[in-house]
Design a protein that fits this description.
It contains five helices and no strands. With 102 residues, it is mostly helical. The chain has one domain. The termini are far apart.
Length: 102
């Protein structure tokens, strides 16, 4: 489920567009995600293949994906709320316009 929520092909590009992130960065999302999946496999694939029972590795990977997905959601929430608070504080510093009395 976290893979779908933080989808590099749908959700994150939509979020980037909503936040006004330049399209250049959006174009890097899928290659970064795919490289991030494939490169570590070079290091661990042989060790996993040697295991007679691989279920533990599969369960560990699923648990890590869920945990990291939760962290990603929490971090995004904290970031958005923190930035929203900063914007509100900045608006509070803005002096109200003083109109000339007639």
């Amino acid at each position: 489920m976290p893979c779908k929520i933080a989808s590099a092909k749908l959700v994150i590009p939509w979020l980037f567009g909503a936040l006004g992130v330049p399209a250049t960065f959006t174009g890097f999302l899928v290659p970064i995600r795919e490289a991030g999946v494939l490169l570590p496999q070079l290091a661990v694939a042989a060790a996993v293949r040697r295991l007679a029972i691989r279920k533990g590795v599969w369960v560990l990977a699923g648990g890590l994906i869920g945990l990291i997905g939760d962290w990603l959601g929490a971090a995004a929430t904290v970031l958005v709320l923190g930035l929203l608070s900063l914007i509100a504080a900045a608006y509070s510093l803005k002096l109200p316009e003083v109109s000339e009395p007639y």
